């Protein structure tokens, strides 16, 4: 139950932001952050001489924010597209982290799996004491992050909506799209880094993008897209956990695969945008054209 709750809260935090990443065509941001935090981990160790999770997460968060701000600055120049900016920034930061490890920490074991790229199966064993109560740390942390993201999206709903669909119009009504974009990306960076230790990097990237991409195929309304995305995230958490227990497999991997299966179903069966619906419409158009061009039919003869 703790594992499912942790994954569900992580899905909520990620899926509240994911639709805006998909609409803004910066869907790889989560993957970029997962690589770009490496120099922050090295710097935190060198400065504080400890591998404590809190210190490592803080160091990672700093470089996650640096990553998204650098990407946004490149995009703002108008000379580099969004995907190209991501592809330029995160390899540079990741390479910096690799160089830092080889130069300053080559003889030290930085256990990235236990400090930042966590495993959701260990979530029930990481606890903290709050007013004498022993609580699961991942549930508390991801619950807080979910509430913060919900407040952010709720308070800035109009601004996020208009800057996602029409940045030029947003400027004319004095809504700064660049400021909103940076704020959104910083929220994504903080959410991703906070969730890494609890559920692992791969699951975070999956929950940021896959449910939102599936919801994008199922609706044309933004509010419905966000709600459907969160629902898909929770379904993936529950179905993935059940499947992993039955198959004795990786829990995070099964949850990510469950989300991918939902996307595949949406891609095939979406009433408006699915491949089946598009094939049916094309077949109907070809049939209508053939009937119109056939002189033996009443329509063609007329």
Average residue pLDDT? 84
**What Rg is obtained from the alpha carbons, in whole angstroms?**
23 Å
How much of the residues is beta strand, in percent? under 5%
Describe the strand arrangement of the main beta sheet, using strand numbers. Answer: 1-2
Instruction: State the name of the first-level CATH class of the domain at 2-201.
Output: Mainly Alpha
Task: Write the CATH homologous superfamily of the domain at 2-201.
Answer: ABC transporter involved in vitamin B12 uptake, BtuC
User: What characteristic shape results from the CA principal axes?
Assistant: globular
The share of residues in helices is over 70%
Looking at how many chains there are and whether they match, the oligomeric state comes to: single chain
CATH architecture of the domain at 2-201: Orthogonal Bundle
Q: Find the structural class using helix and strand composition.
A: mainly alpha
Please give the number of β-strands.
Answer: 2
Written as H for each helix and E for each strand, in order along the chain, the element string is HHHHHHEEHHHHHHHHH
CATH topology of the domain at 2-201: ABC transporter involved in vitamin B12 uptake, BtuC
- Biggest β-sheet: count, sense, barrel? 2 strands, antiparallel
Sequence stretches where pLDDT stays below 50 over 5 or more residues: none
Structural notes for this entry:
The protein has 302 residues and is mainly alpha-helical. It has a domain at 2-201: ABC transporter involved in vitamin B12 uptake, BtuC (Orthogonal Bundle), CATH 1.10.3470.10. The protein has helices spanning 2-23, 29-36, 38-48, 53-76, 82-104, 112-115, 137-155, 157-165, 167-172, 177-199, 201-218, 222-247, 251-269, 275-293, 298-301; strands at 127-130, 133-136. Strands 1-2 form a two-stranded antiparallel ribbon. α1 (2-23) runs antiparallel to α12.
